[in-house]
Amino acid sequence: MALGCAVLLAACGGDGGADGTPAAGAAGGDGPYLVATTGIWADVVERVACDGPLDVRTIVPAGGDPHSFEPSLQDRHVLDGATLVVANGLGLEATLDDTLDSVEDGGVPIFRIGEHIDTIQLAGEGEDPHVWFDPTRVAGALPALGDALVAAGQDAAVIDRCVSAAQTDLVALDTQLAATLGAVPADRRLLVTNHDALGYLADRYGFEVVGSVLPSTSTLTEASPGELDGLAKAIEARHVPAIFTETLASSTDADALADRLGVAVVQLYSDALGEPGSGADTYDGLLRTDATSIADALTH
Questions:
Q1: Fewest CB atoms less than 10 Å from the CB: which of 189, 245, 250, 286?
Q2: What are phi and psi of 27, to 5 degrees?
Q3: Helix, strand, coil: what percent of the chain each, to 5?
Q4: Are 255 and 265 in contact (CB under 8 A)?
């Protein structure tokens, strides 16, 4: 299911974004362009700007970790030339934040999606940045994103239609995810993750996050023996059947813990889209793939 654009047009914008946009620094034509920090947001943005003239480019490559991505001089050049930059914010792009602030100071508008979403507060860490795991929250932010695109020169009437279509698709996606995850019995709706990435999914679809190997919303932390021992006791006490790791981060500690406890390890797509053909190479594909993996792991 494509968001928005497929409803309105047979083809969208250019060849860009998460389904074909040149990576930062690659040739993308001489016209105006927009930059999204990650492929997840490039995919969403491209649909909201579905028949506008802007190319949509990304900075963090497919499979890259936005928590630790270090921009190059060429990335900075691409950002400086953008009509608009769309970022997640909330500390997700920690090693990119200084560059984004500098680009903004230079006059390029930055739209931080997290500023337009009702966020989850985490004790000791502030706001959870992984907002895309609740498509209804993303749908609520689309009108503000549409306004930013209009301010960047897009046609207001077109953007309004695209926002409405994308919101409709996200509501349908939410219904699909709820049905998939609804198969998990109440006493098995327990999540142990590699880092704290699934808080919004848990909140939306009725799961409990028992703990994480890296007890942080960032992948830049390290596991401690004491925290791993505490997590092991929680997994045993709650009879958690699986630990969910990620395609973008090392799972060495999670693998060792799972082997010690005799539980399954299941890999999810968390902070980045998958490669083309993975089934997780669009925003909605990522969520559907992860929901299926979670449901399968916790019901068998």
A1: 250
A2: -65, 135
A3: 45, 15, 40
A4: yes
d(CA 44, CA 42): 5
Residue given tokens 């389904």 in the structure block: 19
Q: Is the pLDDT of residue 14 over 70?
A: no
16-41 pLDDT per residue, tens:
333 334 444 343 557 889 999 999 99
Count CB-CB contacts under 10 A for residue 234.
14
Amino acid found at 233:
K
Spell out the residues 6+ positions from residue 45 whose beta carbon is closer than 8 angstroms to its own.
Answer: 17, 34, 36, 56, 86, 145, 149
List C-alpha distances in Å: 178 to 122, 135, 292: 24, 11, 11
pTM of the predicted structure, to 2 decimals? 0.87
- pLDDT at residue 51 tops 60: yes
250, two tokens: 């090392």
CB 210 within 8 A of CB 243: no
The secondary element (H helix, E strand) that includes residue 84 is strand 84-87
- Token pair listed for 152: 């960047």
- Long-range contact pairs involving 246-249 (C-beta distance under 8 Å, separation at least 24): 246/193, 246/194, 246/195, 246/197, 246/219, 246/270, 246/271, 247/63, 247/272, 247/274, 248/63, 248/64, 248/65, 248/219, 248/272, 249/65, 249/194, 249/195, 249/214, 249/219
Specify the range with the lowest mean pLDDT, choosing from 51-55, 131-135, 254-258, 277-281. Answer: 51-55
Cα 148 to chain centroid, rounded: 20
Express as a percent the part of the chain with pLDDT over 70: 86
Q: Report how far residue 212's alpha carbon sits from residue 122's, in angstroms, rounded to the nearest whole number.
A: 13
